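Limitations

Structures in this collection are predictions, not experimental determinations, and the ligand pose is part of the prediction. Treat each record accordingly. The example that follows, with NAP as the small molecule, is included so readers can see exactly what is and is not provided: the inputs are given verbatim, and the output is the predicted complex.
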Amino acid sequence: MTVTLDRNVEQFIGAPRQLFINGQWADAASGKTFATPNPATGETLANIAEGDAEDIDRAVRAARRAFEEGPWSRMTPSERGRIIWRIGDLILEHTDELAQLESLDNGKPFAVAQAADGPLAADLFHYMAGWATKIEGNTINISVPYMPGANFHSYTLREPVGVVGQIIPWNFPLLMAAWKLGPALTTGNTVILKPAEQTPLTAIRLAGLIAEAGVPEGVVNVVTGFGETAGASLAAHPMVDKIAFTGSTEVGRLIVHAAAGNLKKVSLELGGKSPNIVFDDADLDRASVGAIAGIFAAGGQTCIAGSRLLVQQGVYQRMVELVAGRARQIRLGDPRLPATQMGPVANRPQYDRIREMIAGALDAGARRVAGEGQGGSVPESGLFVPPTVFADVDNGSALAREEIFGPVLSIIPFRDTEHAVRIANDSEYGLASGVWTNDLTRAHTVARKLVAGTVWVNTYRAAAAQAPFGGTRRSGYGRERGEEALREYLRTKNVMIDLSGRTPDPFAIRT
Ligand code: NAP
Ligand code: MG
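Predicted complex:
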């Protein structure tokens, strides 16, 4: 079966793609480009401008100007809200095109990008658009003990932080761009977005749609390039007021160091090793589907992957059989074909790392119950890793402690609720978690005890524009989505006005 590309997609990847700075498409100052490959075939999809420190500096200056002088900050909230709403509409109008680009560049099934990534990205802009008119401060009744006669009118203003650098990964390129741009724009900031080198296409296309929606020049700048150059100079730039980052814990640390120079505000959404906990009383058919979705959706290349499946002893054997059996049936293949359930790993370094982790676990004596040589078929070429399941995993082993970021599940048995919570929280990370039970009290009790930014009960992976998302521990800090996301992009100013008509002599203060 042949797959035909949308004409717009063909045209888009048929030409070298440039940087988007100050409303203009431009080559990198160095003139350099890099190739973005299709992970399903290894072929080059398009050549991309390789922005570096000089281009970042140009983009930051454009964003600074747009913030301080441009019409963006002076627009009424209603006007801004309408433009942001229009971005959401344009994403929906271009869903198929964006989904094809995403599928080609990242390797995720086209059907998934079309049904989930595009609509979720659009919904984020639509949701945020509503907030543009609802950003409010407070009036505060204050008492100043050493100024007894004073009569204050005190209130807060909530202002944009200014120029924001946003650095995103390759696993959900369009969605990560939306989650970051939506709240930053809603609150009146200007942005420099650096997409991952592996998957720049949808961010570049989105820049065009954002301009089409009416966002003024310089408000959103997209600089493609490498992390060590473009990313690092953005994180260190003294004119940038905030950095929002999604990616590895290791690079997250580098970002914090780089941001220290001018004490940028930072939000980090990093890795995870999330527990998905199945109790004896759970509906096992549902729980096994949830376990599969938790780890094999997006080929396990998600920060929220339910990579540790904790199963209570009474249903342990049955769950291992159900999950391993289902894992062996997952259809790997060309992401553009409708029958494909799991595509290739998104890039070569990631592929090598996953294979190494599997080999290391086998060397250490781990029991593999699904994966290579255990049934199921794997395409001959392309970066394919068969869905892999290890049973009887020790929570202290590398398999259970390190983020693999691939289709590798570790099943760990537990005795009772307390034991489950202890294992679940015994991790350096604290991003997501799942609980499968029909016992209401247990569901709520365990939800309170888990160290995680998200707890799903009898579901896994649900994501909504309205619900706050983020982590704790080495999974980072700050929240994306929901009202909480706005706080990351606002700072509070307190205004105090003395209405008493008297100014007390500071040397005659009575305490
Ligand atoms: P990464 O290196 O953390 O990359 C994330 C983003 O940061 C990319 O845009 C990257 O640019 C940029 N970057 C890299 N080094 C930088 C630096 N020194 N300063 C500023 N920005 C920098 O992640 P990765 O290499 O793509 O994946 C490695 C691991 O990260 C994965 O195995 C997984 O464990 C984790 N990860 C987590 C998430 C998540 O959603 N939390 C997403 C992806 C990966 P370039 O790509 O252009 O180099
Ligand atoms: Mg690519």
